[in-house]
Every structure is written in C-alpha cells, then in structure tokens.
Amino acid sequence: MRKADRLFQIVQLLRRTSRPLTAESIASELETSKRSVYRDIAALMAQRVPIRGEAGIGYVLESGFDMPPLMLTPDEIEAAVLGAQWVAARCDPALARAARDLIAKIAAIVPERLRPIVLEPAVASPPSWDILPETLDMAAIRAAIRGARKVVLKYRDERDVESRRTVWPIMVAYRETTRIVVAWCEIRDDFRMFRTDRVISAEVLDDRYPARPATLRARWRAEMKTRYSVGDQ
Q1: Is residue 81 in a domain?
Q2: Statement to judge: residues 95 and 13 lie in one domain
Q3: 158: buried, middle or exposed (CB in 10 Å: 19+, 13-18, 0-12)?
Q4: Contact in structure between 58 and 19 (CB atoms under 8 Å)
Q5: Alpha carbon distances (Å) from 50 to 17, 39, 53
Q6: 90: in domain
Q7: Residues 49 and 89 in one domain
Q8: How many domains in the chain?
Q9: Residue 186 — φ and ψ, nearest 5°?
Q10: Together in a domain, 223 and 185
Q11: Burial degree of 59 (CB within 10 A; 0-12, 13-18, 19+)
C-alpha cells in the first residue's frame, strides 16, 4: 500500500469511530507495523489534520475535519449501491426514491473508471417479497423521530384488540415484509414495537418528548441485549 493510500485509510478509520484507536488496532487493520502507524500519524499531524492522542493510549480525529467526498474505493461504492438497492426495493416510497437518487448521484460524481461499478454492479440485493399493506405515513414518522415529537397511535394488536396510545417514536426497523416502529409507550411506561400494518391511524403532535431519540435508542438496544442474553443462559 502506498503511503498516500495508507494516510487516507488511517483518517477513514478514525472518522468511523468516536473512541480512541490504538496504533496496534490501526496497524492490524491496515496490515502494517505500529512503527509505520506512528510515522503516519506524525505525518498527518504535520499536515494539520486534527488528530488528538498519543502512543499507547489511542488517537481520535477531532470533529470538523472532512475530506473530499469523491475519494471512494470500489468496495465503498459497492456497499453504498447494495444498500441503496435494498432500500429502493423494501422501504417506503420517499426512502425508495431517495435511494434511487443516491445511486444516480454516486454515478455522477465518481471518476469515469469507477462508474461501471455503480451502473453495472456486481452486487445485488435479493428480490423483495410483497410488503404488507399499511396506511401509516412513514415519512411523517421519520420526521417525528428527527424532531423528537410524540405520536398518537390507534393500533390493532395480534388479537385484533384496538387501543389508543401516545408514544415517543425512536426508530423505524425495516424487515423483509413488515416495518416496525420502536417507541416508548406512555401507557406501558416501557419500550414497545408496533407493526406498521397494524396501525389504524397516527397523529404527530407538536409536543416534544423529553429525551433525545439517540439516548432512547441506546437504552432500547441495551435492554434488548440484556433481555436476549439472559434468555440464552
């Protein structure tokens, strides 16, 4: 690997995590020596790349630093195209349209030699099954999550029992044939998952819920991990 490529990869490794990365972990991923990593980090710092840290502890790339968006590798392009294909085939119309637009934009900005990877990809997502019909406006739900707004759901459960509840939506999960809204339910005082095909109606309120969506997502993931790890014992 050329030194220029290695420097770029080091910055990429630091960009994708907020935790300190040790020289050993960087060297292992790049298949080089720790001594080379130390020299490369010093070279990047000399070029005023805002890397903070020291040998033996780890390195962090400070916020506010970015690189030209055109420097994509073939693997990165294929990953983006594959993900966009999956979204275009399985997600709601707004996200599907955005995925198709994303593929077109990638094709427009990458160098000519990489364009066939976008337009004639060697990867493909499997055919999609029919999505169960739903009346829920998924774009509105995603906007409610971004704005931390409460939503009133009229919902029919698997026993065909209807209920009305105020929830704090934090995430939409897309499965092969169904979509799930993960939310904090005020009635249950706990996290709940609602299948979108069982939602009869939804009203996004102006009221904001008191916690950050990212904080609630972290709590939900921690609870799911604990619940399933306990169940496996």
Answers
A1: yes
A2: no
A3: exposed
A4: yes
A5: 15, 15, 10
A6: yes
A7: no
A8: 3
A9: -70, -35
A10: yes
A11: buried
209 and 179 belong to one structural domain: yes
Task: Say what the pLDDT of residue 67 is.
Answer: 58
Residues paired with residue 167 on neighbouring β-strands, in sequence order: 151, 185
Q: Could you give the C-alpha distances from 8 to 4, 50, 75, 164, 233, in angstroms and in order?
A: 6, 14, 15, 52, 44
Determine the number of helices (DSSP H) and then strands (DSSP E) in the chain. Answer: 8, 7
Q: Please check whether residue 108 lies inside any domain of the structure.
A: yes
Quote the domain boundaries for residue 85.
74-119
Task: Say if residue 181 is in the same domain as residue 150.
Answer: yes
Residue 213: how many CB atoms within 10 A of its CB?
19
Exposed e or buried b per residue across 132-154, where buried means at least 16 C-beta atoms within 10 angstroms of its C-beta? eeeebbbeebbebbeebbbbebe
Query: Per residue of the chain (233 residues), what is the pLDDT tens digit?
Result: 677 778 888 888 888 887 889 988 998 888 888 889 889 999 988 888 889 886 678 999 887 666 555 567 889 899 999 999 999 888 888 899 999 999 998 888 888 888 899 989 898 887 766 666 778 899 999 999 999 999 999 999 999 999 999 999 999 998 877 889 999 999 999 999 999 999 999 999 999 999 999 999 999 999 988 877 755 54
81 and 146 part of one domain? no
Q: Exposed (0-12), middle (13-18) or buried (19+): which is 183, by Cβ within 10 Å?
A: buried
Rounded to 5 degrees, what are φ and ψ at 33? -95, 155
Q: Are residue 157 and residue 221 in the same domain, yes or no? A: yes
CATH of the domain at 44: 1.10.10.10
Q: Is 92 inside any structural domain?
A: yes
